[in-house]
Specification:
CATH class of the domain at 82-138 and 164-315: Alpha Beta
Number of helices: 14
Strand content: 25-35%
Oligomer: single chain
Largest sheet: 5 strands, mixed
Strand order of the largest sheet: 3-2-1-4-8
Number of strands: 17
Low-confidence stretches: 214-224, 326-368
């Protein structure tokens, strides 16, 4: 049986449904053959019942896909972001193999699990600087197996397993091309929550998931209650202030909203001052990836990021991170176990299972240790002449560390503690020691409360009210103070 690399079926598993798209590649241009959604009769918390309902849903999808016993499409499987650990790294922009070595060296000491229990890969973002920005992704083998084992018998083993975040990142990348000079904030509404991403010209650097609690999910798992909307609005504010410190010379004007119920949810959100909520231009985003207007019109809004991930895999081979290799070893082990059962010899059964188990363990462990060994060779070889320079830079960094100010934590606490009847419209810093805050309040008492709140926070000292005034936007206050260093 041969996998047709010009024919792809992409599945996205959600707690209450399976989304799917079927694509073909004509030359270098993708086209949509079919797409849809299959609702699961049992939720993910139902354990065995969920597995049976997932098998039934995938079997229904497979019956609608064009395939034969001689030739089958490639399979791309998107799993929930919550099952994957991610970390953003900046590494020297070298060839792909050296990048893998550097990543293995950087994160190897932080992994608390045995190498054979994890599978990992990375997504490298475009950019022309000497430093490459990469997203490192890792998952436990058992987490991947949970989804692979739930697929029905006769369904092909997925060629690529990746988190749903990859589709959202592809949309953010397309939006960057439509809005040059702006940092893109993308809000991807995915059942039963949302993912926030921030990206500049060098790639994605921030992503955070907001999940609705079980009591806040509407029919079909869609988050509709005001609690989720409030959490999402608060997370938008945090993201905006955090990103504004990161992007010194890039404009942020809008939040692009996509996904399920994107228009109705967007109307209920309260964005921070200076940001507008706009629906993502699906035609522009998917069109930039190569899909034609007629096909884009057939794709449901909730499947936008799934389609983006599928197109990315078809048109840019080997760029989509793949968390499937370790799982393939497990599938191979099950296959050998079945063969042993057919032969019927008890000794052969035990021997084959032991061989398969050792093979599955060796694959993950060998891959990880191979990269770790190569990384150390890289460090001791090509990068040996840079050790002295790095030591000098570390001394400088240690000196600066004593004077640093944790701005990201500061902004998160500010977003949580500012009262609802007070709006902060501007916050600026002078040489990272003095700050000026401007905002709107209902009365002088509200301003006093803000001053007391700032004094109680460990980040500020010498907080005073410079002035208050009634301006065209209302009752406005100006507060000055000093930022504590070395916190």
């Amino acid at each position: 049986m041969v996998a047709n690399r010009e024919h792809l079926v992409a599945l996205q598993i959600l707690p209450g449904a399976v989304l799917w798209v079927e694509l073909e590649l004509h030359g270098s241009m993708p086209s949509l053959r079919n797409c849809g959604r299959e609702t699961l009769s049992q939720g993910e918390s139902s354990n065995g019942a969920w597995k049976e309902s997932l098998q039934e849903a995938v079997s229904t999808i497979w019956s609608q896909v064009t395939h034969s016993w001689m030739e089958q499409p490639e399979i791309l499987l998107l799993v929930p972001d919550s099952r994957v650990t991610s970390r953003y790294l900046e590494v020297p922009s070298t060839d792909p193999e050296r990048v893998k070595n550097v990543i293995a060296f950087e994160v190897g000491e932080e992994i608390q699990l045995p190498p054979e229990e994890i599978v990992w890969d990375h997504l490298r973002f475009r950019g022309e600087s000497e430093i490459a920005r990469v997203l490192w992704l890792a998952a436990r083998n058992t987490s991947i197996h949970e989804f692979l084992d739930a697929l029905p018998a006769g369904f092909p083993v997925p060629n690529v397993v990746t988190p749903a975040l990859i589709g959202s990142a592809a949309l953010a990348d397309s939006a960057m091309k439509e809005n040059p000079g702006q940092a893109t904030i993308l809000l991807d509404l995915q059942e039963p929550g949302a993912t926030l991403l921030v990206q500049d010209v060098d790639g994605l650097y921030y992503a955070r998931s907001v999940v609705a609690s079980t009591s806040e999910k509407g029919e079909g798992g869609s988050p509709e209650a005001s609690g989720f909307v409030q959490d999402l609005s608060r997370e938008l504010t945090r993201t905006f202030f955090y990103a504004r410190q990161r992007f010194k010379n890039i404009t942020m004007k809008q939040v692009l909203v996509t996904g399920k119920d994107n228009l109705s949810i967007a109307r209920k959100l309260t964005p921070p001052p200076g940001l507008k909520l706009n629906a993502l231009n699906m035609e522009g985003a998917l069109g930039a990836l190569g899909l034609n207007t007629k096909d884009i019109a057939r794709i449901p809004a909730e499947s936008t990021s799934l389609a983006a991930a599928a197109i990315l895999h078809m048109t840019r081979r080997d760029q989509v991170p793949n968390l499937a290799p370790a799982s393939a070893a497990g599938t191979f082990a099950r296959g050998l176990g079945g063969l042993a059962g057919v032969v019927g010899g008890r000794f052969l059964m035990v021997a084959v299972l032991l061989i398969a188990l050792c093979a599955g363990t060796a694959v993950g462990s060998t891959l990880w240790r191979q990269h770790a060994i190569e990384a150390r060779q890289e460090k001791t070889g090509v990068l040996l002449d840079k050790v002295k320079k790095l030591e000098q830079e570390q001394k400088i960094l240690r000196a600066l560390q004593k004077e640093r100010v944790p701005f990201s934590k500061m902004f998160l606490e500010l977003a949580d503690k500012i009262p609802q009847n007070v709006t902060m419209t501007d916050l600026s810093f002078d040489l990272r020691t003095k700050f000026t805050m401007k905002g709107k309040a209902g009365s002088n008492r509200d301003v006093e409360n803000i001053v007391n709140m700032l004094k109680e926070m460990k980040y500020f000292k010498e907080v005073t009210v410079e002035k208050t005034a009634v301006e065209k936007e209302g009752f406005v206050f100006y507060i000055e103070g000093t930022v504590r260093q070395g916190i």
